[in-house]
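Session log. Operator J.P. requested a structure for one protein chain; no other inputs attached. Running the standard single-chain path with token output.
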Amino acid sequence: MKTSVQVLSQDERHRVHEESLNILEKTGVRVETPLGRRILRDAGARVDDLHKIVKFPKALVVSSLELVTRDFVLSSRRPGFDLVMNKGNSTLCPDGGGAMVLDSATGQRRTATYDDWKKITSLADALDEIGMYWCQVAPSDRRKTLGGTVDYFCRVFRGFSKHIQDGPKTDDEVPWFTEILQTVFGSKDDIKKNHPVSHEVCPQSPLSIDHRYTEACLALKGWNIPVAIMPMPLMGCSSPASMIATVIQGNCEVLAMLCLLQANEPGVPIIYAPALAVMNPLTAGPSYAAVGFSIMDMAATEMAGYYGLPSMSSPGGSDAHILDFQNAHEGAALAMPTILSWPDIVVGPGMLDGSMVSSLEKMLIDVEVFRLAKCVHRGLDTSEERWLTDVISKVGPGGDYLSEKSTVAALRSDEWYISNLGSHEDFDKWSAGDRTPLQEEAREEVARILKIHEPLPLGDDVERELAHICKRAMEIT
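Structure written below.
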């Protein structure tokens, strides 16, 4: 029996849906992109171009939901690491968008560089529990030009051999991105079928769809690239001051973008991915350690299930600025219930200080929390061979089970899980050893992994073509 958690009843999920339909029909959403308003008007939405407000008839939302491809695979270059959506699997994805790192050597915060990005990407590629790429830090020494962006895309595909969730941020980057995709993954038909990349788009809260990033997403029309829709309403600031109201608003924002994407490219796969956050009343920014963060993201996973959509969840983490007791207990406490709700994708490992600072050691520790949560989610194995009532009768009162074959077999199975991090021996052995602190142990393990890990090579022909594409892009800018 698997462990299950629930925060919304079936009736409550249905009410979230119905309330969302009413808001979308009567209040609508501000759509900044003229192209998006035109697409939605053609699909049957009521559009006020003067005020940029789009209202969605219930029939449009229902028909858009019917169009969505729900069961699909996010493929990987590395054999055995394809991500099958909507089939009871779960994987980790590093959080993204940080500007700084916690330096492993000095323990001090500093601005991230390309070398940091390379180490973070390599560690994520090496850890099996991480099945998807996000750009965790924006390197300060990256050139913010078209040529620099094209070079970055090429580096991503060299450095990470599992699924990539990244893409163009402007429509002029789209032809370069798709040329790189064809160089690495083959024909357009192969890419449409296998989904080696997915894209993320973030409606703005409250109830707004932006211009620039949305048009970049729309420009990928015809490639059948799955899209994760991730509004980020902040309870008490950019969404109402209650968890259920924030769930409803986030649902509205997902459904509005879903309607636009289906009108633009019917059938394009969708991942339900709202990141529902809680305002810190001391700063008016997000409180990543607020337990409401985790509760609302559990609710979002349940709403994804209500619609039959794959889910992507962001459980929050810690407000701590360094790796310390606060970071450990907050990070584990918030991650555990969200992971137990079992979204297809869990965002978050590796970040500190409100997802602004990346830490290699934190990534390793967060992956360990995920491993423990997977054991809890798996629950009790009640298959017939696990009951062992015959062994209980055989050993009888006062015996022991150490020499039983069933004990040896179980120790070699997933019935036991002992972490490789930290101390798990008795006090005498621990005190007689080197007593390495957990943080130092994690640092040593990171160094070991980075020393031996090599990303799956692309091949000489692919590398030559990528170099040629980068050269052409650099000449333009």
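Operator note: The two ends are 58 Å apart (CA to CA).
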